Amino acid sequence: MGQFYETIPESLMKWVLEQKMFCVATAPLAGSGHVNVSPKGGPYFGLLDDKTFWYLDLTGSGSETVAHLYEPANGRITVMFNAFDGPPRIVRLFGHGRVLESATTAFADFVKKHDIQLLAGTRSIVVVDVHQVGSSCGFSVPFYDFRDFRTTLNDYWSNMLRRFDEGRSKESVEKYWASKNAWSVDGLPGFSMALETAKKQHVAPVAKMVGPLAPHHYRNDRRFRLRHLAMVSILTAILTLAFTISVLPYL
Q1: What span, in angstroms and rounded, lies between the C-alpha atoms of 83 and 142?
Q2: Strands (DSSP E) along the chain, which ranges?
């Protein structure tokens, strides 16, 4: 049944690297925030040692994981692998992550040092320091036969970068990041490069959630809105009334 370790046991290392997919879970610190779970597939995961791993973060429509890792005093992350064939097994790696964005020197140095093969659309590498490893039975996980990795995402970004190189300036991955990767669904800031591009090129973020529980503004968005004007007007009226009442006896 369940066993826990402070580091990744050598007996699990080979098994982890053989898995075809894993899931990443993170959450904001606020209780009202949304827990995120992201499936990852492909051979884009690596172990540096028995307490550190990395994975390629490919461009997608969300930026939840990165936003949670960037949140001050947060950085919590759990990665889960499970066996879809052979003996049943679930392995969770609990840790704290850091983000190496693709435009940074830290990213370039890491790629060179570890000879990582990048893909079109790679926006960052997530590096995780593990502080706990959990292994459990997985007896209820069904069998699945692996057929192949999907190439849809890789092909999409390869084609977009090709069109950009051909002169189609609107086909910019930087603008995509600015539109969809600058903020989390809860209004936490996401990729630094996305925020910078959004500011420089005036790219508005896309709305990501709907309904009454969806956030209606970004937490760090300091633009002056109509509700702010209404609040100022109400406060001004209250202060004016209070001042008038206080000076009436002396008139």
Answers
A1: 9
A2: 3-5, 21-26, 36-41, 45-49, 52-58, 76-82, 90-101, 122-136
Instruction: Give the containing element (helix H, strand E) for 15.
Output: helix 10-18
| Distance, C-alpha 72 to centroid of its chain | 14
Q: Number of helices (H) and strands (E), helices first, in the chain? A: 7, 8
User: CB–CB of 122/154 below 8 Å?
Assistant: no
> Which amino acid is residue 67, in one-letter code?
A
Regarding beta strands 76-82 and 45-49, do their DSSP bridges make them parallel or antiparallel, or are they unpaired? unpaired
**What are φ and ψ of residue 84, in 5° steps?**
-100, -5
- pLDDT value of residue 226: 46
b/e burial code for range 143-154 (CB count within 10 A of at least 16 → b) = eeeeeeeeeebb
pLDDT of residue 112: 97
Please state, in angstroms and as integers, the Cα–Cα distance from residue 68 to each residue in 98, 188, 196, 224, following that order: 10, 8, 18, 26
CB neighbour burial string for 95-115, b if at least 16 within 10 angstroms, e if fewer? bebbbbbbeeeebeebbeeee
pTM beyond 0.85: no
Nearest of 199, 166, 167, 165 to residue 182 by alpha carbon: 199
The CA radius of gyration of the chain, in Å to the nearest whole number, is 24
Tokens linked to 105: 């020197």
The whole-angstrom separation of Cα 68 and Cα 240 is 44
Give the Cα separation of 209 and 188 in Å (integer): 14
- List the chain residues with pLDDT less than 70: 1, 216-232, 243, 247-251
Predicted local distance difference test score (pLDDT) of residue 223? 38
